[in-house]
Give the backbone structure.
Amino acid sequence: MRAIIGIFKLRIGVVITFTALAGLAITPGPRLTGLQLLVLTLSVLLSSASAGAFNQYYEYDSDRLMARTRQRPFATGECRPGPLWLLAILALTTLSVAAAWIALNAWSALFVFLGAFFYAIVYTVWLKRRTWLNIVFGGLAGSWAVLAGASAATPQLGAAPLALALVLFLWTPPHFWSLAIACRDDYVAAGVPMLPVVVGDRRAAGTIFHGTLLLVAASLLPLAFGLGTTYFIGAATGGAIFIRQAWRLRRDPGRQTAMRCFHASLLQLSLLLTAAIVDSQIGY
């Protein structure tokens, strides 16, 4: 069980699934049946899991060079990469997309597919070892999940889910670059050009701070498209926490402050998504 959770990155999958449910919640339209809601949840979770497994399959050699990842099952040899793993990953992806298409609609299935494709191929294969912009575009996986949930309610995407997708797009870089500062030596050892490796910790911390300001400003956009006081409280509270830690990181770009900023980003997203779901249900 520990190996399965590790290989399929189920913790990340749960977060991605939560974003899809938030996208669904804030989108006006017919209510999904219980079966449709289950299919949406499992489709996003399985597609994210398959992309996470492919990420570890493809990077098992560089994972061995990083203290943070050297205990992953493929890196340790607990699980051996081979064609059966690729077949299983492809089968999971196909199953998740097909289920979304059959139970929901083609648009939702497309966004489920794009979430997995951007993380597994765009980020992992094309960009991660080539450019510091890797996580900027790879982070679209969360945005596609929002749209997968929203289009499950109606294929005609409204302004509110598009604004929330923008929030997820802007959230990923400062979130991940905070972790990259804390694990900078790992990325140097693995030859991965994360932003702190390319420009140094101090300049990266400045970019994180300004990115966080932009993120928090964008997180207020859904207020113009129907979300109300509950959402504002969650977005403002989480945003203030994230800005505070990003400011501290800018002043002291060390490992401890970077990890505090990383955890603050997770708290900010959790508060924002929870508030979006609650607000859409109580209408206040």
